[in-house]
Amino acid sequence: MTAKEVLLIALVLIVASALLYTVHYSIFHDVHHIFIYMLGDLAFLPLEVLLLTLIVDRLLSAREKRNRQYKMNMVIGAFFSAVGQRLLEHMAGLTGNQAEISAHVGIDLSWTEAQIREAITWSKSKQFHVKPDPVGLSELGDVLVEHREFMLRMLENPMLLENEAFSDLLWSVFHLEQELSARKALALSPSSDLDHLAVDTERVYTHLLTQWLEYMVHLNQDYPFLFSFSARTNPLRPDAHPEVV
Questions:
Q1: For labeling, which of 108, 185, 196, 230 is most exposed (least CB within 10 Å)?
Q2: Span 219-226, mean pLDDT?
């Protein structure tokens, strides 16, 4: 709504109020009561503003924020279902310390929210090191190229602007995909270039693991049946399987 439209609405309301007071006076000829009720309404106005702005508005804002977060988690869930879990599994192999990672983030059905949050703290403090393996990096590049169109469509979602951490993850993934697809033969790349690609992969893995754990907290809280499936197919557990036993 423009400023001109707001001003027009305000003028219409003021004129309507003046006309109603005029009708009241023309019928009852009582200015005394008109001013009594007017002052009473004006006295209540600050309380009305308080109720609307500090209480109702905050409640509506909190509800809107929850709805936006719900939709954002749906987008994040689609990302991990389509490509995120494959990236987690593949990158864990490139780190060379899958046993340590599985010990700290090997979520299963018995894990509580507190345990997952401890895993988040660990992942944020951990410095991951990726091996500059040309074969593994080439396979990783194939996965990224395969899902390029899907991730491009995700960037078109305006809700991503409200989640800085997930946006950072997607941008780091796109950067890695560009770096890997620009090279035709990684086996012929010098060690300095492979080290550079390893650093880009480490950046993606750090963002990816933290975001996945945050998403698992959401599933644990709100969607136990989805958490059950994600825990049973945890890509960071070598013994994971979808069957319920």
A1: 185
A2: 91
Q: How many whole angstroms separate alpha carbon 237 and alpha carbon 245?
A: 16
Q: What percent of the chain has pLDDT over 70?
A: 92
Q: What is the pLDDT of residue 160?
A: 75
Which has the higher per-residue pLDDT, 22 or 169? Answer: 169
Neighbouring residues of 105: CB distance < 8 A, sequence distance ≥ 6: 119, 122, 123, 209, 213, 236
The answer to whether 216 touches 227, Cβ cutoff 8 Å, is yes
pLDDT at 131 > cutoff 90:
no
C-alpha pair distances (Å), 110 with each of 67, 150, 152, 237, 241: 28, 33, 36, 14, 15
Cα separation, 95 vs 87, whole angstroms: 12
Convert 168-223 into a string of H (helix), E (strand) and C (coil): HHHHHHHHHHHHHHCCCCHHHCCHHHHHHHHHHHHHHHHHHHHHHHHHHHHHHHHC
- Alpha-carbon dihedral of residues 169, 175, 181, 182, nearest 10 degrees? -170
Distance CA 218, CA 66 (A): 12
Contact yes or no for 217/120 (Cβ under 8 A)? yes
Mind giving me the DSSP string for 92-135?
A: HHHHS-HHHHHHHH---TT--HHHHHHHHHHHHH--------HH
pLDDT in tens, 16-30: 878 877 877 788 777
Judged on CB neighbours under 10 Å (0-12, 13-18, 19+), 187 is exposed
Quote the pLDDT of residue 56.
65
Does pTM surpass 0.70?
A: yes
Domain ranges of the chain: 3-59, 68-232
